[in-house]
Design a protein that fits this description.
By secondary structure, the protein is mainly alpha-helical. The chain has five helices and two strands; from the N terminus they run H-E-E-H-H-H-H.
Length: about 120
């Protein structure tokens, strides 16, 4: 059984929600200060391990990694050791008519939106 804690960050537009999440996931660097998780400065934790084990973010805007396939982009958004989710990702991609090996640079905007819907479905798993 996987126990999961969910938190919600709310605030007005421009309040810094996306900036906070970007700093937490090390997609951006803070100008000052430190962020601690479980007593450890997150800068001392391997950022990939931290993302895989402790935090998941689905951003409003998205950028697929064009040299990766659709399946590889989905895998990046989930914890890699969840084989059930990987199989579900492949199933969902096929359900929208995607070859799991197709590079995302070949996809239209509607298909990219369908992939984002898959991210959201997997996040609810």
């Amino acid at each position: 059984m996987i126990l999961r804690k969910e938190k919600c960050i709310v605030g007005k537009s421009g309040a810094g929600k996306t900036t906070l999440l970007s700093v937490l996931t090390e997609l951006a660097q803070s100008d000052s200060g430190s962020i601690y998780y479980d007593g450890k400065d997150i800068k001392t934790i391997n950022k990939y391990q931290f993302r895989n084990q402790y935090i998941g973010v689905i951003f409003q805007s998205f950028n697929l990694i064009t040299k990766f396939t659709a399946l590889e982009n989905v895998i990046l958004s989930i914890n890699s050791w969840h084989q059930r989710l990987l199989l579900k990702a492949a199933e969902l991609l096929k359900s929208v008519g995607l070859d799991t090996d197709e590079p995302t640079r070949n996809l239209g905007s509607q298909t990219q939106k369908e992939i984002m819907d898959i991210f959201r479905q997997l996040a609810d798993e």
